[in-house]
Amino acid sequence: MMFWTIWWVWLCAALVLGILEVLVPGFVFLGFAIGALAVALLLLNFGLALSLSVLLLLFAALSLVAWLVLRRFFAAPRGQVKYFDKDIND
User: Fold this and answer.
1) Could you list the residue ranges that cross the membrane (predicted)?
2) CB of 5 within 8 A of CB of 50?
3) If you ran DSSP here, which 8-state letter would residue 6 be given?
4) What pLDDT digit, counting tens, does each position of 34-75 carry?
């Protein structure tokens, strides 16, 4: 059994990506963390024995879906622009 088919490896990757999200602003790694967590849950619940290429494709697809959902919920409403009228030093 290769290490990428073990569910806790993907869970550790999700944890690392989640920590990176806290350190780097802008929802950069959150979609990837959710994708890795989803792959971990799929491996844990169904015990799939998939190849690395299939797992990476699944991870990429789930990460893209997570990113699109996050963008839909956390983006500014259409036609509006976020602007700041106060300086952090004021």
Assistant:
1) 7-40, 46-70
2) yes
3) S
4) 999 999 999 988 877 788 899 999 999 999 999 999 888 877
- Distance between first and last Cα of the chain: 58
Residue 63's pLDDT is 96
Q: CA geometry: angle at 25 spanning 12 and 66, to 5°? A: 55
How far apart CA 64 and CA 26 sit, in angstroms, is 16
The residue assigned the tokens 């920590």 is 19
Question: Alpha-carbon distance 58 to 76, whole Å?
Answer: 29
Find the DSSP H helices in 1-85: 7-23, 30-46, 52-74
Give SS3 for 47.
coil
